[in-house]
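debug: dumping io for the single-chain case to check the tokenizer round-trip. Nothing else runs in this session.
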Amino acid sequence: MPEPSGLYYPNRFARLFLLAMEDVMGQQGLATILSMAGLDTYIDTPPPDNLARQFDFAYMAALSQALEDMYGTRGGRGIALRIGRATFSQGFKSFGMLAGMAHPAYAALPLEQRTDLGVRAMAAVFTRFSDQTTTVSDGGDAYLFTVENSPMAWGRTSERPVCHALAGIIQEGMRWASRSYEYHVQEIACRAAGADACTFKVSKNPIGGVDRSARAAAITSES
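debug: decoded output
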């Protein structure tokens, strides 16, 4: 097992992450990555489905490193992004304020308000349920999603950002909050690359998708 950091995700976060890995890579792929990361104990026994903070950040870092070791820097990045997006879809969206975004009243809000609430809700979920302290600030045409202690970067050294799974979670979270729009998410600073914190630039302007609530309102007004 990797040397513990003393900082933790709740078991449910880790369980969702491993389920997402299996969804993207298959059962054998997951088992291989767990073994490479020194986490063989989770091959047959996944983390329990509870909110106890017991899955160490060092384990997340080891999984991220194993993905790069197995697939290379570029390939590992692509796989990690997919895993992050699948993690959100598997159940991350059921936490805290994110759960309320399934309500029809939320869908009726203007797009800008939905995405603003969504990105801030994601940060609040991480801060409330885990040891990942996360804040959101206004960067003009983008949000700055700042993680003080990213588990993917914990104890790692790299020439470039490594928190690709977190970027994937944010991407899918923005799509969920906006009701189908895609948003550009880029990690512009990373502790693994020498920064004080890991910062993601999240564009406020969508790059694709259909605003279903706006379309529904237009259809109603035409009828």
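debug: round-trip ok. The beta strands are 8-10, 53-56, 134-138, 142-147, 185-189, 198-203.
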